[in-house]
From TrEMBL:
InterPro entries listed in its UniProt record: Amidohydro_3, D-aminoacylase_insert_dom_sf, Metal-dep_hydrolase_composite, Metal_Hydrolase, Metallo-dep_Hydrolases_sf
Domain Amidohydrolase: 46-155, 410-510
Organism of derivation: Lachnotalea glycerini
Residues in the signal sequence: none
Record's GO cellular component terms: cytosol
GO molecular function terms noted in the UniProt entry: hydrolase activity, acting on carbon-nitrogen (but not peptide) bonds, in cyclic amides; hydrolase activity, acting on carbon-nitrogen (but not peptide) bonds, in linear amides
Name by which UniProt lists this protein: Amidohydrolase 3 domain-containing protein
UniProt xrefs under PANTHER family: COLLAPSIN RESPONSE MEDIATOR PROTEIN, HYDRANTOINASE/DIHYDROPYRIMIDINASE FAMILY MEMBER
Amino acid sequence: MDEMDVLIKNGIVVDGSGNQPFIADVAIERDIICGIGHFEKSEARRVIDAAGKMVTPGFIDGHTHAELTLLKNRQCPNEVYQGISTIVTGQCGLGFAPIKNDQFEDSIKINSGIFGDCRHYLKHWNSFQEFLNQLDGAAINAAANVSHNAIRQMALGFENKPLKGEALQIAKQALDQAMKEGALGMSVGLSYYPGGYSDTNELIELCKIVKENDGLFCTHLRLNNNQIPLSPVEEMVQVVKKTGVRLNMLHYRTGGYEDISTLFQPFKELEERGADIHYEYYPYLVGAGLVLALVPDWAQEGGYSIIMERLQSAELRDKLLKDMKERHQYFFAKGQTAMINITKDMYAKEIGKSISEIAEEHGESFSEAVIRLLIENELQVGFIGIENQSEELKSKLYEDQYQLFMDPRYTMGSDTIPEGVICHPRGFGSFPRTICQMRERSVAPEYIIQKLTSVPAQLYHLKDRGLIDVGKKADVCILDFDKVRDTATFLDTRRQPEGIESLLVNGLPVMINGSLTGILSGRALKRE
């Protein structure tokens, strides 16, 4: 063998295939794994001693909302610290490509409760290809779904009605073009808008295009508020039945004392017929989101300025409060609340306080506090859920998560939102947390690693990723398996996990011995 660029010596190789670990050297030439075996140190320009350490493929996070954060901080520390070499963005119907020039600012501001207001960091784009090109050159690889919201905006702006006729044809053409430009699939977030203004027929028509391109349909369910005749899950059953599209149910898990089998019952007949259905969860009991989502659908129509007018309207206030009270039950169970983590003012005293606390301090109702926060922050308000379930329920839900992880149909995706002074700890902890939780349950290391690498690579059609094998891309993580654990908490969210030591992305080290190198060797990945 000619002189190699990198030689990882004497590691315990867990190759991502599910095969048992073995001790070997891994040789890298440029961005390709060129050999697995035993080699002399003198044959390499750089040698990394991995004796006693596990050598795995870089992890693949199939569910993130990190695209705009990546564009302003290309070192992507929260992903790199976890050993993540590739992310998938554009989930939950939230995304910004393709986009028209006159929609760019509105789209950023309306979604700033999740993504922050990054406009001054961004170079404008229009096509999906132009957007994807901008993801190139970070510390990690990035691939993307095209979002339902973006497709709807191209056809109908922020109007509150389903796509039909000419508007539907425009949307289908835009979707087909994005798929041909490299989108992995299409995501919907049907409790967000304008995607939530759709009907089932719209989803069926769009998913025909996804199916034609062999893409993946990723779904964040609609609220179960009788907006359509079907239940949210039954709607997905109908979409798959009518189109044959591959389906991935995002953050689909139990939330209470319901039996875990209830998750799969609606899909049983489809699966028996051979439908390609997948599921995903993240390893925490509460999520995060934008506070604007707590506002009813009619109040979110029309774009930023009109939303702000409605929030400030004295004439609409009683109706707004009434409908918000009705809507909140779909986000928070009785006794639950949420903590504010993103505001326009990074120093705001509301950060880290619950909405209930803020309301009490100002002598307001919960909904009145939400409206005031949205107005004062020009919609740039985000929240994190608060884990206040009983210990009995927590134990049951974590047992359910173990069962989901062991199910071959499931992947784990962090659903990370890395914005805010305080971010959800899943942004820094999901992958080490999963490894730690499953290790403590004596799950085989080769199964754990397979679920975090080759399984999502296959699901999203990420060619040459997710395996340590000759000819594959050299995304390689080195970790001390028995020491891996998350350290981020809901009070101290941006803490580096333990046990993840080094990460190579496309053959170059982006982290060595726990320290970022500043090398930006990641690439924008297209569906293949």
